[in-house]
């Protein structure tokens, strides 16, 4: 009969073999892995869970916790502006590339570091909220101690290489649980599939989002010395599991192993994985983290990136078939059937071509610089580009072309000035008009005739406009009739064109 208590030890040996095959060197280096039930904190599976390890960008989970905690305490706000300093702008990629002096809200900054993993923005969060990077690192360490993260040491907010900064799989599981427990209103931060800045859409580096059913966060990370890391959460049927995978040779292997661990975790009942909690995991005998650079970043190969997961496009059916082959091998070794432990032989021929399903369509979340999108220089540029054809405003030109001189207003202005119009001259223009209209003009006088005339005859407007122009050209003319004549309309057209250009 199979002894379940031997499963972690057996799996650890197989995983150690997998790490040995991947690294091609001493088997003393075992990549840490951990599966924990979020609600109870009980450990479902662990391997090297308390070994010190370089965190890379999963550090930004710690940065986010400190920032959200400051907001909760009233020491910061999500809409406060952070300024990009020269030091922040000088941080190496992954980055947004903001110029020094650029400002953005804390809310947008947190979205950017969770999706794009921008080191310049994380640095700005540390400087602005902590007063300095050292000040913010002190807050990170204080918070870690309060949460029970006993294996962690923090020196910067973005996770770029620093031999003094490390953590453990156990501590990252403690942190992940704390984020989900203490800030339920901010859980969406960890599940954003992409951000959109201006016209650029940047997908999340987390290759499990949109590919593995139930995964809803949290963060990936990569540096040569630490390999490819991920802290991921998944929810199925109301049960939430947290998985930590560290030290993998590629984003693809990291994502596949995390998926297998989720399979294993969801396959276990809440009563079958014992009573060991995260707090009860034994301290590691290893004093300092191993340097994985010789194994991860081989100079003879291209530099790996955390975007490798974008290449995972194979069908789920193919992945399932290969998982069955792995189960057969594990059963032969005495382990129960489960695709969750297939990662032990990741480098075998049967599993070399495994992949996750294609990614679900991205749903980008808008981010911007400044306090709101209208203040963002990029947003303003992007909004102006499509609006350029509209700026020509054909409707405005039609307005200028409207028959303004035909309106009765110029005639009233003539009456107001008291100008006399020679009746024979105007009557001569009404040869085609009805006799009644002509006699009405003669009996009522010039002012009444000019007002009544456009109703019965449109041609009557022309003489009025012509006469207005003459009157307006005189020094004694008032400004009102000048603004309403045709000659006054031409400068309007010219100024409108100048503005459109």
Automatic annotation (TrEMBL):
InterPro entries: Beta-lactam/transpept-like, Peptidase_S11, Peptidase_S11_N
Secretion signal span: 1-28
GO biological process, one term: cell wall organization
Positions with biased composition (Basic and acidic residues): 465-487
Location of the region described as Disordered in the Swiss-Prot/TrEMBL record: 398-418, 448-501
All copies of domain Peptidase S11 D-alanyl-D-alanine carboxypeptidase A N-terminal, residue ranges: 33-248
GO terms assigned for molecular function: serine-type D-Ala-D-Ala carboxypeptidase activity
Record's keyword terms, sorted: Carboxypeptidase, Cell shape, Cell wall biogenesis/degradation, Hydrolase, Peptidoglycan synthesis, Protease, Signal
Record-linked Pfam families: Peptidase_S11
Binding site for substrate: 219
Record-annotated active site: 57 (acyl-ester intermediate), 60 (proton acceptor), 117
Family: Belongs to the peptidase S11 family.
Protein name (database record): D-Ala-D-Ala carboxypeptidase
Natural source organism: Methylobacterium aquaticum
Organism ancestry: Bacteria, Pseudomonadati, Pseudomonadota, Alphaproteobacteria, Hyphomicrobiales
């Amino acid at each position: 009969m199979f002894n379940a208590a031997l499963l972690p030890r057996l799996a650890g040996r197989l995983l150690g073999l997998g790490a040995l095959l991947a690294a091609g060197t001493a088997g003393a280096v075992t990549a840490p892995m951990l599966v924990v039930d979020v609600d109870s904190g009980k450990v479902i599976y662990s391997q090297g869970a308390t070994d010190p390890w370089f965190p890379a960008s999963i550090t930004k989970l710690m940065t986010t916790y400190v920032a959200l905690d400051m907001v909760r305490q009233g020491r910061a706000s999500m809409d406060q502006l952070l300024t990009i300093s020269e030091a922040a702008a000088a941080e190496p990629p992954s980055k947004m590339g903001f110029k020094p002096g650029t400002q953005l809200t804390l809310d947008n900054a947190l979205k950017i570091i969770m999706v794009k993993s921008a080191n310049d923005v994380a640095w700005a969060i540390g400087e602005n909220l902590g007063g300095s990077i050292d000040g913010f690192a002190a807050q990170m360490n204080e918070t870690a101690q309060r949460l029970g993260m006993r294996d962690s040491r923090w020196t910067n907010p973005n996770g770029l290489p620093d031999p003094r900064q490390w953590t453990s799989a156990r501590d990252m599981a403690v942190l992940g649980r704390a984020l989900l427990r203490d800030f339920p209103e901010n859980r969406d931060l960890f599940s954003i599939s992409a951000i959109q800045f201006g016209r650029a859409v940047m997908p999340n580096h987390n290759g499990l989002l949109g590919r593995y059913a139930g995964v809803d966060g949290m963060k990936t990370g990569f540096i040569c010395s630490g390999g490819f890391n991920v802290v991921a959460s998944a929810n199925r049927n109301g049960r939430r599991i947290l998985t930590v995978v560290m030290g993998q040779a590629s984003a693809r292997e990291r994502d596949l192993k995390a998926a297998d661990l989720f399979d294993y975790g969801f396959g276990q009942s809440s009563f079958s994985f014992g009573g060991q909690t995260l707090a009860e995991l034994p301290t590691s005998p290893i004093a300092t983290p191993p340097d994985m650079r010789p194994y991860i970043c081989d100079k003879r190969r291209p530099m790996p990136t955390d975007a490798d997961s974008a290449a995972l496009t194979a069908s789920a059916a193919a992945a399932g078939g290969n998982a069955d082959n792995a189960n057969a091998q594990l059963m032969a070794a005495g382990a129960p059937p489960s695709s969750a432990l297939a990662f032990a032989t990741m480098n075998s021929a049967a599993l070399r071509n495994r992949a996750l399903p294609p990614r679900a369509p991205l749903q980008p979340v808008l981010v911007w610089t400044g306090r709101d999108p209208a203040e963002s220089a990029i947003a303003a540029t992007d909004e102006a580009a499509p609006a350029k054809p509209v700026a020509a405003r054909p409707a405005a030109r039609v307005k200028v072309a409207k028959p303004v001189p035909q309106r009765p207003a110029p005639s009233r202005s003539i009456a107001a000035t008291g100008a006399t119009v020679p009746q024979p001259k105007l009557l001569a223009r009404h040869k085609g008009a009805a006799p009644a209209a002509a006699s009405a003009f003669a009996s009522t006088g010039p002012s009444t005739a000019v007002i009544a005339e456009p109703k019965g005859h449109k041609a009557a407007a022309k003489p009025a406009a012509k006469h207005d122009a003459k009157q307006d050209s005189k020094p004694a003319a008032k400004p009102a009739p000048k603004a309403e004549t045709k000659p006054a309309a031409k400068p309007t057209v010219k100024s409108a064109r100048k503005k459109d250009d």
